[in-house]
Design goal:
Radius of gyration: 14 Å
Low-confidence stretches: none
Order of helices and strands: EEEEEE
Structural class: mainly beta
Largest sheet: 6 strands, antiparallel
Mean pLDDT: 90
Shape: globular
């Protein structure tokens, strides 16, 4: 099995992305850890996700980095072999 290159946050921060090409691990107190696909704004140092509204428009929602522990680029995860 391939070992994935998870990076510890905030020790390493991702490069700027314009789409949701990062998976983050969030470990909030009293909850099980979970993952979320998102993007990262390097200039202003925040993670974001796009949200679809009823009218069909999208907007960018900031994600608090308080409980983010690790992250990886989606394209670094190998596809299953046939």
């Amino acid at each position: 099995m391939t070992k994935l290159n998870w990076r510890k946050y905030p020790d390493e921060k991702p490069c700027d992305t314009s789409d949701e090409s990062i998976i983050i691990v969030i470990n909030e107190p009293f909850n099980k850890p979970y993952t979320l696909m998102c993007g990262y704004n390097e200039r202003e140092h925040y993670f974001f996700e796009y949200r679809l509204h009823i009218d069909g428009e999208y907007d960018e929602a900031d994600i608090s980095d308080e409980y983010i522990t690790h992250w990886i680029y989606v394209d670094e995860i190998p596809l299953p072999e046939e």
